[in-house]
Amino acid sequence: MSKRNISIRQCSIADVNSIVKLRRIMFESMGYSDLELLNLADEAANEYFQQSIPTGEFIGWIAEDTQKKAIGSGGVVIDKHPPSPNNLSGKKGYIMSVVVVEEFRKQGIAQKIMEIIIQWLKKQNISIANLHATEMGRKLYKKLGFTDGTEMSMKI
């Protein structure tokens, strides 16, 4: 199936189950295998998206095949930080949940989802976007202009 047979649209509350299933695929492809932990993450994500999609806290996109089956997704949350010389608005887009089911990978779908997210951020006058890249996604993100950064984290 070619990219032109795939449609990408902004998600709604009706897409929560699809988003949760796609995130599960993403986490499994990242090596998560503890079924109990994955199930708990699914439940927590379902609750999060049920609340955050209607309020606009999470903005997401779904890629669908010709049968309207969800085969990919991506989303963004806007974080608000104190303004800085590099970002006078203080707003940053945090891109997440970019995933395409295995049989549709390497067809440009993730790139198209990312381009839609980046255009949406530009329309919102948000000039900084961050994400956490898996090894699978790193090449695409670099191609789109993301740079390796110095972001560090600590699990507390």
Automatic annotation (TrEMBL):
Coiled coil segments of this chain:
none
Output the InterPro entries linked to this UniProt entry: Acyl_CoA_acyltransferase (IPR016181), GNAT_dom (IPR000182), GNPNAT1-like (IPR039143)
Determine the domain of life of the protein's source: Archaea
CDD domains associated with the record? NAT_SF (cd04301)
Q: Locate the N-acetyltransferase domain: which residues?
A: 6-156
Under what name is this protein listed? N-acetyltransferase domain-containing protein
Q: Which organism is it from?
A: Candidatus Lokiarchaeum ossiferum
